[in-house]
Amino acid sequence: MVSCVKLFAPGPFQAHQLRSGDPYELSKGHPVLCLPTGGRGARANLLGGTVLETDPAVEQAGVDAGFTPEPGVMRAPDVAVGNVPDVAGWVQGAPPLAVEYADRGQDEEELQSKIAELLAAGTQHVWVVRLMGPRRVEVYTPGQKLRTLGPGESLVAPGILKNAVPVEALYDREAAHEVTLRNLLQRRGYESLEAVREVGREEGELAHARAVLRRQLGKRGMTLDAAQDARIDRTADLATLDRWLDQALVAKTTDEALR
Question: InterPro entries from the entry (predicted)?
């Protein structure tokens, strides 16, 4: 959350006249002074950005990226999801999802102007995270009534995010870390931490079965050639390894044991 105050200075100005690092946005050619945020807003902004950037469906996201849908407008959402290319300069158009953090000192009139300009430029969802008073998130979408969600509820952005986002994950550290972990696991092909544990258990059982089979073959005086050894390593079916172990108790050759 950056505290923005519109300055009624002469205009019109254009986005190309602003440089990266200038403390301004532009609204219809007029400069909007944007000041640094406080500690609470800074912490929440980092948490929310991490949660959204790690969602498995997200390829591009950024913090304070400047978007210019037209020459006289340049808006920088606290967090933008989508349309954040890895190139220098302002971004043309608008992000599909924008998140704003509103805390003490927020200029409400300016915030509503910013939301309206983002939606008009093509943003599909604007989430305003309220840090003052009861924690809540206001959801703005084109052509729909304002919705407000609180703790225990979840936010969705179909076509932009894979996962629903618990309201608390946008400002609470523990909730944000839990969702971020889930997202990162899904990016590696695991649906949950329990799924990782299950894979670990299965791998442990397979490793044990392979070791027992090799030990039994060794006790019977049978030697594995390279191809047979590799075949055991490739086998990921526990029932097959158990069958080979039973056969190894009576087989006369390794070929008979592994048939």
Answer: Nuclease_put_TT1808, Restrct_endonuc-II-like, Uma2
